[in-house]
């Protein structure tokens, strides 16, 4: 029985790698702004996930669970390496195309997101990048749904103000509701 | 550039994912699986050794305390007699004198005697019943019973206790008795019959 369960777990975990590694990578990338760090964290996330996979009761909620593991890694990393201007200047969102217009745009987005607090950025990413509902985010972050809504509202407000103060960035958040 | 709520998700999903990432994750996972298996094996080795020891001990104990076939055959004979209500009494004075043992005292009268073959061994089956209706069956064989040295020489079988004794070199006795019998009376009886 144990052998069969292990086999099922392996098949499931393999699917999780296929389906979620991109989402986790982008999440980590937007949180850290560093491609190498993002890659390491995603690998570490899967490493830890396999160790404690048996703890996940509802296997259909793998992505929120993986994101929780990733979140802890990101916060641990950020405690060690404070995000400052220098860090932002070392951004490598698109290492191979550092001078391309695409990279500039992504850097603009990252810098805009960097004006948000870590919790606001996290909440916004869960909503905008992964498409989780307020309720789902509330469960994942273990905060009241009102807190989720206010974080997203404040994030919007911050991005709007940023757009007004830096119109040259051509980042228009006015219609971002 | 982010222009509306729909564009933000698109922009956030734009950074390409390194192609090597999935392979790296899978490589790490493969290594991790091997380590986990090896670790589990290392952790389980003492448990496995313990289990083998237990199994070996159980098998050994079962072998050592294995009830001899002759005891089982004797019990079958007793059961058979009981069902058929056999009450034969054959003269045994000559047999007792020939093989140098005494008959039980009058306080414990002989209820039945018969010659029977159990486990291919010719024996005299002698049933003694006490006043309290406790019973003692003696299967007396002029010689040695065919039992292996590692087998048990006493124990319990069904509702009866049993033991093998060899009062003399050419006299072996299998004693089966109901558990209600007074042990002192039993020992006295055996002493009186075979050791005096």
Structure, described:
- The complex is a heterodimer of chains A (177) and B (196).
- Chain A is an all-alpha fold.
- Chain A has 2 domains: 1-93, Rna Polymerase Sigma Factor, Chain: A (Orthogonal Bundle), CATH 1.10.1740; 115-177, Orthogonal Bundle (Arc Repressor Mutant, subunit A).
- Chain A is 71% helix and 0% strand.
- Chain A has helices spanning 2-32, 35-51, 62-80, 85-89, 101-114, 118-128, 134-141, 145-165.
- In chain A, helix 1 packs across helix 3 (62-80).
- By secondary structure, chain B is α+β, with helices and mostly antiparallel strands.
- Chain B is 44% helix and 23% strand.
- In chain B, a hairpin with a 2-residue loop joins strand 4 and strand 5.
- The longest helix of chain B is centred in the N-terminal third of the chain and has 46 residues, at 19-64.
- At the A-B interface, helix 1, helix 2 and helix 5 of A face helix 1 and helix 2 of B.
CATH architectural grouping of the largest domain in chain B: 2-Layer Sandwich
Helix content, binned percent of chain A: over 70%
Biggest β-sheet of chain B, characterized?
6 strands, antiparallel
CATH topology of the largest domain in chain B: Phosphorylase Kinase, domain 1
Number of domains of chain B: 2
Considering DSSP H and I runs of 4 or more, what fraction of the residues of chain B is helical? 40-55%
Number of helices of chain B: 5
**How confident is the prediction overall: mean pLDDT of chain B?**
84
For the largest sheet of chain B, list the strands in their spatial order: 1-2-3-6-5-4
Strand content of chain A: under 5%
């Amino acid at each position: 029985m144990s052998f069969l369960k292990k086999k099922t777990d392996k098949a499931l975990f393999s699917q999780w790698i296929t389906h979620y590694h991109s989402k986790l990578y982008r999440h980590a990338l937007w949180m850290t702004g560093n491609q190498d760090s993002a890659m390491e964290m995603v690998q570490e996330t899967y490493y830890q996930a396999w160790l404690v996979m048996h703890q996940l009761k509802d296997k259909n909620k793998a992505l929120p669970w993986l994101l929780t593991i990733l979140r802890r890694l990101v916060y641990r990393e950020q405690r060690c390496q404070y995000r400052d201007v220098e860090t932002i200047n070392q951004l490598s969102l698109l290492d191979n195309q550092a001078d391309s217009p695409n990279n500039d745009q992504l850097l603009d987005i990252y810098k805009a997101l960097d004006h948000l607090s870590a919790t606001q950025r996290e909440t916004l990413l869960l909503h905008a990048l992964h498409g989780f509902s307020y309720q789902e985010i509330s469960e994942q972050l273990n905060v009241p749904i009102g807190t989720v809504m206010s974080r997203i509202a404040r994030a919007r407000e911050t991005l709007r103000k940023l757009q007004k103060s830096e119109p040259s960035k051509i980042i228009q958040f006015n219609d971002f509701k | 550039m982010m222009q509306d709520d729909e564009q933000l998700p698109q922009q956030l999903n734009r950074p390409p994912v390194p192609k090597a990432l999935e392979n790296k994750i899978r490589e790490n996972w493969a290594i991790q699986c091997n380590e986990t298996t090896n670790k589990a094996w290392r952790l389980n080795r003492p448990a496995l050794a313990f289990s083998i020891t237990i199994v070996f001990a159980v098998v050994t104990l079962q072998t050592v305390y294995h009830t001899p076939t002759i005891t089982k055959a004797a019990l079958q004979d007793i059961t058979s007699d009981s069902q058929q209500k056999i009450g034969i009494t054959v003269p045994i004075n000559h047999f007792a004198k020939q093989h140098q043992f005494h008959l039980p005292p009058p306080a414990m009268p002989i209820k039945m005697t018969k010659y029977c073959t159990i486990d291919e061994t010719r024996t005299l089956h002698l049933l003694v019943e006490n006043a309290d209706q406790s019973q003692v069956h003696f299967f007396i064989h002029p010689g040695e019973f065919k039992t292996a040295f590692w087998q048990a020489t006493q124990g319990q079988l069904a509702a009866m206790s049993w033991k093998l004794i060899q009062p003399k070199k050419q006299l072996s006795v299998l004693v089966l008795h109901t558990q209600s019998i007074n042990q002192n009376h039993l020992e006295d009886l055996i002493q009186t019959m075979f050791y005096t």
